[in-house]
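Project standup — Tuesday

K.O.: blocked on the structure for the chain from last sprint. Re-posting the sequence here as requested.
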Amino acid sequence: MKIESQKATVQASQTEILEFLSNAENLIHLLPQDKISDWEATTEQCSFKVQGGIVITLIQNGMESPNKLFLKAGEKSPFPFDLTVHISPLSGATEGYIEFDGKVNMFLKMMVEKPLTALFDHMTKQLQNWYADKNA
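H.V.: unblocked you, prediction finished:
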């Protein structure tokens, strides 16, 4: 199952965005605070519980600087998946989106596709807001 978030334009350089996102401790700023709990993080991985009690673990899995950051599911996650954060320059700013590739059966796909799409759209919007507030 593949999902792509909406694209977001952020008023920061590719390098700045990649640096921010490559520290897993910063991902807390992008998640919907009212829908997660039990946040734990190091610079290389993070885990949190989402509504419904499912634990998600994200582990850094390399990068293609300055265009892509790769994350993968940790062993606590309910199914294997990969996330790729795509970032590209856009006239003085940076445009980016999240691409999800999960190995899920049809039943699970029906359950998780809408919430995951909403989550990734929220995360890209939050990144946009984070830099807008920071630069205000």
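K.O.: great, moving the ticket to review. The chain is about 25% helix and 40% strand. The mean pLDDT is 94.
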